[in-house]
Structure formats: C-alpha cells, structure tokens
Amino acid sequence: MDHIVTVQDAVTAFADFMEPTAAELDAIDAEMPVIRAEMELLDAQIVVIDRGPTELDERRIRRARRRVLAAHRDYVNGLPVQKGGAA
Fold first, then answer.
1. Surface-to-core class of residue 14, CB atoms within 10 Å of its CB (0-12 exposed, 13-18 middle, 19+ buried)
2. Torsion angles phi and psi, residue 4, rounded to 5
3. pLDDT of residue 43
4. In CA terms, which of 8, 16, 30, 38 is 20 to 30 Å from 63?
5. Helices (H), 1-87
6. How far is it, in rounded angstroms, from Cα 53 to Cα 65?
7. Which residues of 53-78 are buried (b: 16+ CB within 10 A; e: fewer)?
8. Which of 56, 50, 52 is nearest to 87 (CA)?
9. Tell me, what's the pLDDT at 8?
10. Residue 85 CB coordination number (10 Å)
C-alpha cells in the first residue's frame, strides 16, 4: 500500500523568503492608480461587449481611456498620486 504524502511542508518551507519586500510593496502602491484606471476602462468595455454602445457608454469609455493615459503619464513622470475625482 502506497501512502499519499502532501508536499505542504516543502511548498511553505520558504514562505518567509517569498514575501514581497517593502520596496516591492511601494512599487505596487505607486502603480495602483494605473491599475485602477485600467480596471475602470476594462469595466466600461465589458459592458458593451454584446451590444452596441450607447452615447453614455461611449463617453464612459472615452473618460476611462483619458484616465488611463493620465495615470500612465503621472506614473512615468513620477508625479504624486491624484486621489478622488469626479466619476
């Protein structure tokens, strides 16, 4: 009879070393406005996948694209994060 053995100890043995460093977490925080803007654009595009976009949908997509571009620009230029804003 063969015994089934888990590899949990082997997988988690190095978990402490696999945690993100403070620098990596800071990099993620710095890029978060870009990620949020891209998610907003994706949400706007998903809404119109199976139907034609209405005028409101088109405006929402254009606005989301502008936010993505602005977020990328700010991230690349190292500008401070803008929080909030009108929807």
1. exposed
2. -90, 125
3. 95
4. 30
5. 8-12, 22-47, 55-77
6. 15
7. eeeeeeebbeebeebbebbeebbeee
8. 56
9. 60
10. 7
Among residues 69, 67, 45, 40, the alpha carbon closest in space to that of 57 is found at 45
- Contacts of residue 20, defined as CB under 8 A and 6 or more positions apart, other chains included, come to 28
Contact 83, 49 (CB under 8 A): no
Rounded to two decimals, what is the model's pTM?
Answer: 0.67
How do residues 5-64 score in pLDDT, each as one tens digit?
665 655 555 566 678 888 999 999 999 999 999 999 999 999 999 898 999 999 999 999
Structure token digits, residue 23: 């620098």
